[in-house]
Amino acid sequence: MAFRSRRELVTESWSAHAEALLSLAEKAYPSLDGTAIDALVNVQLLQSIEDPQLQYLVRRAMPTTVAESVRELTVQQTLQSSLRRPSAVASAEEWGSPASIMDPVVSSEPGALTEIESRLDNIEQSIRQLRQLVISNGTENVMAVNARRRMRNEPRERLRRRLQCWKCQGYGHLARRCPSYSGNAGGPSTGTERMAWNN
Fold first, then answer.
1. What sequence ranges are listed for the domain CCHC-type (predicted)?
2. CA–CA distance, 69 with 64 (Å, rounded to integer)
3. Are 25 and 37 in contact (CB under 8 A)?
4. For the segment 39-93, what is each residue's pLDDT rounded down to a tens digit?
5. 29 and 40 in contact (C-beta within 8 Å)?
6. Which pLDDT belongs to residue 168?
7. CA–CA separation, 19 vs 131, rounded Å?
8. 83-119, pLDDT tens digit by residue?
9. pLDDT tens per residue, range 174-185
10. What angle do CA 23, 25, 29 make, to 5 degrees?
11. What pLDDT does residue 187 have?
């Protein structure tokens, strides 16, 4: 099944991946309601995270909806990428022995302090960008998922409104549930019902 085996593509954002999973889930399980589809997609989205550290961090936040998962994935991935930049993290060779990591003085070189300050500035800038990203894009992700949920429920309502009763010529119900027919109390009639569609 394509829904269960779908992984995030390299060029795909987490919100696009969630949309693709949502579309596949709707096709695979057309009879489920929006809440059940959202729960299925949320579980599959969390399972599709290939980086174990990222998966742990997102699961630790305990997102309950697809929108929360996408938001948390975006936040954690941005934090990880900012901390993994060469300018933000020093390699083991730069720091030297494990004992030197614990020393308050990192190095006796004159440029070491300015390098550390520039790394801290880069981390602070990444955090500011991350906050802006969450503020600006967080609501868009939630709105996109909620809009899909509304679109999924609308066709059923339109179908229900198109039904026409042949007994009273009213719309929205069939003859077996006709409110104006007095013989309705005994349940469905003997099978003489017809369904007329309002086209």
1. 165-180
2. 7
3. yes
4. 998 999 988 888 899 899 899 988 899 889 998 888 888 888 777 755 444 444 4
5. yes
6. 86
7. 23
8. 775 544 444 444 444 444 444 444 556 677 777 777 7
9. 778 888 876 544
10. 125
11. 47
Sequence-distant (≥ 6) Cβ neighbours of residue 53 within 8 angstroms: 80
Question: Contact at 8 Å (CB) between 145 and 71?
Answer: no
By DSSP bridging, strand 196-197 and strand 163-164 are antiparallel
pLDDT, position 193: 46
- What is the C-alpha separation between 91 and 102, in angstroms, rounded? 15
Neighbours of 175 (CB within 10 A): 20
Q: Which residue has the tokens 């174990």?
A: 52
Query: How far is the first Cα of the chain from the last one, in angstroms, to the nearest whole number?
Result: 36
Instruction: Give DSSP secondary structure letters for the chain.
Output: -HHHH----TT--HHHHHHHHHHHHHHH-TTS-HHHHHHHHHHHHHHT---HHHHHHHHHT---SHHHHHHHHHHHHHHHHHHHSTTTS--HHHH-SHHHHHSS---SSTTHHHHHHHHHHHHHHHHHHHHHHHHHHHHHHHHHHHHHHHHHHHHHHHHHHHEE-TTT--BSS-GGG-TT-GGGGGSS-SS----EE--
